[in-house]
Prior knowledge:
Elements: H1 33-63, H2 77-96, H3 106-114, H4 120-144, H5 146-151, H6 165-186, H7 189-194, H8 203-221, H9 227-237, H10 240-244, H11 248-268, H12 271-276
Helix pairs in contact: 1-2, 1-4, 1-9, 2-8, 3-4, 3-6, 3-11, 4-9, 6-8, 6-11
Amino acid sequence: MAKDVEVQPEFSAKDYTDPPPTPLFDLEELTKWSFYRALIAEFIATLLFLYITVLTVIGYKSQTDPNLNTDQCGGVGILGIAWAFGGMIFILVYCTAGISGGHINPAVTFGLFLGRKVSLIRAVMYMVAQCLGAICGCGLVKGFQKAYYNRYGGGANTLADGYNKGTGLGAEIIGTFVLVYTVFSATDPKRNARDSHVPVLAPLPIGFAVFMVHLATIPITGTGINPARSFGAAVIYNKEKAWDDQWIFWVGPFIGAAIAAFYHQVILRAAAIKALGSFRSNA
Length: 283
């Protein structure tokens, strides 16, 4: 009588699956409610983001206004402002990640588009929704506190005195690189597979990246790293200085996002090599 042979299960050397690249043009998206639901989620999330953060900035400036004989050490300080931005990103990415991916930032959307994570149609419409949400969020702040809004700069991003435009541009490029690189790393399917025993909530490192970048660059540019945030504040505040420096808050984040996408997808994940095959010859 033959002995039963125990069959060993086969294991793949690869314990994760990379999703296929998103088509460049996906017209079928326009026929799905999930697409429009995602646009609404991006709009509302960016609106809430600007509303809370701009209120925090204006509140801090009013609490430390030397003309009002206020306590110069009062208010939340730069640390509190950084927490407001990072904390809101953590909250909003957590709330919208399952609906729209939780971009809330045209630079993030652009980086993910270059990484073939979203289609061109979705990327463009996300950016439109984000910019409209930012405008509406700042509009709410101005509607509720018009005097404070105009007096304390409307939360608009401008290059600080003593810094040249090259320094401001570099700060935006590097700051956005940190953010978008964190987004790619936190949502990497390879990391999710290998670190499954240590559950890490993806919005947490993304929020912390925003927090850390704000600590470093608030004194330089007020920290943009989000073109919608800078654009929405400039539209509602509508002063010359905000518009003069506006290009920095678009060019810098888009360059930083492109570098982050290239670094993660091509260098770290070897996308080009995977597309061409492997260094090893197949038998």
